[in-house]
Amino acid sequence: MGLPNVFNTGRTGMIASKAAIATTGHNIANTNTEGFSRQRVLTSAETPRNSAGMQSLIGNGTAISRVERINDEYVEKQVRNGARDLSHMEEKDLVLRQTEDVFNEMNGDGLNRLISRFFNEFRKLSNEPDNEAVRQSVRESSQAMVNDFHRIRREVEAVREHIDARLEGYSKEINSLAEQVKDLNMQIKTAELAGGSPNDLLDKRDQAMKKLGSYMEMSVHKDGGGSFVVDVKGVGPLVVGPMAEKFSVFRSKADDQGKPEAAFDVQSTSHANSLVTHQIKGGKLGALLEVRDKTLSTILDRLDELAYNISDSVNSIHQQGFTRHGVQGVEFFGHMGGKERASEFIQLSDAVRDSVNNIAAAAQPDSPGDNRIAIAISGLQSEKFMNEGKATMDDFYNSIVSDVGVAASKNRSGMNQQKDIMTQLNKIRDQISGVSIDEETANLMQFQHMFDASAKVIQVADEMLKTVLDMRR
Amino acid sequence: MRVTQHTNFDTIRDSIHRSKSRMEGLQQQSATLRKLNTPSDDPIGAAKVLEIRTDKVNNDQFQMNTRMAETFLENTDHIIGELADIVVRAKEIALGQASGASSNEGTRLGVAEEVTQLFQQAVATANRRIGDRYLLGGFKTQRPPVDPEGRYTGDDGQTMVEIAKDVFISSNVPGVEVFNTHPKSSNDGRSVYSPNTLGRGPASEGAMDGELAYENVNVFDEIQNLRIALLTGDLDGVRNTLDRFDQVHSKLVACRAKVGSRLQGLQSTSQALERHNVTNAQLGSVLEDADMAQVVSDLTKEETVFKSALASSQRLIQPTLLDFLK
Fold this sequence. Notes:
The structure holds two protein chains of two kinds.
Chain A: H1 3-29, E1 39-45, E2 62-69, H2 73-103, H3 111-127, H4 132-193, H5 199-213, E3 218-222, E4 228-232, E5 236-240, E6 243-244, E7 247-251, E8 264-268, H6 283-318, H7 342-345, H8 350-354, H9 372-379, H10 393-433, H11 437-470
Chain B: H1 5-32, H2 43-97, H3 105-126, E1 129-130, E2 133-134, E3 160-164, E4 167-170, H4 175-179, H5 195-198, H6 203-209, H7 219-232, H8 235-288, H9 292-317
Antiparallel strand pairs in B: 1-2, 3-4
Helix pairs in contact in B: 1-9, 2-3, 2-7, 2-8, 3-7, 7-8
């Protein structure tokens, strides 16, 4: 074995330590990069060349075999699923909070108070059926109640529109992320074919996949070539090899699964009949669709039912009564065909709007002191004709408020739990893949010493060579 | 376990967030003095609170109704009392003129004038109103229930008002019940003294004897009877009115008793409502109001937690290995 070989051995050490120091630097530089996995240089001992029939094999130094990223695929998957569930709940929380605000009566006036006021005005009227001022106030309070029905309807619709706007934005983000995953798939494949290990691209793809996975439930597996194949549950493939499917939204008619009129339907190029609104589960999209088509639709249906019942029951009594002009059969609320959108269409009848004398308090004509109709109407407040005779109108409305509260608080406690889970999962991921500056500093010193020592080897070899050359003088 | 800078900072951020959000919640409670700020804070409690508020609004209205009914009934009581006084005075006059010994045509004509006054006073009293509402007209509250001839023009409508949930009380007494001793036996009690019997005087009495128990006596008719008897010098007629005035008077007293018992009923219901309101307010307070002692002590505790989180973070963040490699 020749002396120059020792030079070479020292050189490999220097190269390896330089690579390790560069990688350490890369790690430190990316300490705060989201989704980054720490990397390390794997070296292997250079196998001795079996030359000149030497018996003892002396090593040839070191070689960099590859740079690997430290990453656990299983943990990544857990983080991805955890993030999806958390996004689902956060998204739901956001829109449920808005919905709750619509019904928040804890700090002021709301429909509950206005409904009791409505009935109490009829009680007032029963005291003084002949008093014009009381009639005015009956009409005014009825109008206030009607207005509040309209307000709630309008505000819930506004939440729906907000949801639709988000759906539209999200479908674009999904497309762009799917595109990213597809592109990264191809870049990674190219890099791997060239024999490298594209760690940073892998991190990027994991990161993009994590974001993409937060929109809905999807499954991911690797094909033979190491590319991600993404399947959306119940819908179909989203990314396969060099192909990424597209999501889009369009306005359509109401359907029988709670989707409101003119709200967005979601379609995907990957599904046979392209309509996937009700197939999407979980994630942000799932949360939005669930709240829009289930929670809000149910709320509005019940609100409609309430508005219709108030209007219908008050009318049926009011029509039996006589107005101040002795006319029978006048409606108090404008006629409505049915429950459909009743909270939007509920309105005082033209007659009552024209003159308060058209409010019927009397059960017989020409009896200004007769208050029997007013009493009968105020009695509706405690009559159980909602929910097939199980609830009064008050109960019915209160249960809407409390159901909104239950939905929001259930989701919030789930969300807080999920946050804890995510914290834990992120810690686990960080334990494996995160960069510790202390550790990297220690590594830095270690590799620096190695660099110094390798240089020393060359220096020693140089001195040895000098000694050998000096021998001839 | 590998603990990285990320883990450190995440833990710090996390504990600060947690502590801050708990403090925020407590802060909101102490600022509003309420623990129930949105339905999701306590959905079941929120529904209960709404129920209590409805109850409160209704009770307030019931109390208002009670007060209105009280006013109406008290005024009705005054009217009936005054009518009773008038009847008493009429009877005194009748008594004074009943025997030929104490009366002659001159005195009779003199007091007849007073009886005319009494009649008009009775009509005016019966037509008294509060605001623009005639009290004794039944449902016919917008016109005088008794015309100048003493005929009742109202009906027998009872204005029921709700003074507690599903408890109704009549806030008026229809005139027909007040003016007549047996309103049912005569169509709203009008004119026992019909023009046909006008000239016959005592002769008609025999025919009525048999059904005396069911005979209806009307206040206005009776005063009118007295006046006519005085004017015509019909002493039998004057004597006849004595017993009938007694009947009318006892009827009026009975009416007052009825009104009085209604007023008593109103008061006890009103007290029950007050008690109900207090109970409701207590329950509402338990559900809605923040326990300030608890909130303040929690807040102090949270502040300590927050400070110690910050202090430990300070220690955790500062040193790295780099500080010791020099």
